[in-house]
Request: fold
Amino acid sequence: FRTYFRFLLVFLFLPSPHMGFSQGFYFGSSISHSEADYGSDIILSGGATLDDQESGYKIFGGYRANSLLSIEGHYADFGELVLVMPNGASITQGALSSTNTTGVTSSTRLEPTSLGLSAILTAPFETVQPYLKVGIHQWDTSRVVGTGSATIFATEIDGTDVLRGVGFDIPVTDLFSTRLEYEVYDFDDDKLTLLNWGVFIKF
Reply:
């Protein structure tokens, strides 16, 4: 196993004369796993359930100015976060608490999205290119509260916050690369994380 691991490290960082830095535009997409971080513990009681881990996607594109710096824009869909509360169930976060007293099971669905712009600083290795990113994003969250199949009310909130991330690109050919990435997006006092795997094409 150790021999295999050393061979894998050598292979990943072995310089390649054909696949490395190329200046210009790129465009790609990724599949994502999202998870919410509320900043403090959430306590559920009375049979309440909270599904705050979802699958989503991201579309991104940008311009690589040189071997170190890229500017990238994105649109990200974090999936749907769902809170289900039977009658009498409660949810508590810090000093805030809410109890369902409607007499029926209620559900709250959140659908967050993000549109943003980031600067990316890349280590200019040939085969594996790790990077750091920081940026700003305009977020929007739609909220739908209902009972059964009926909608009681729907609202939208939005804002502008920072994002940051780490990842690495692996060039497969001169024009095609794959990417693995971990990002953290601020949504006011809350955070959403994205674990992305995607591909992109260079122009």
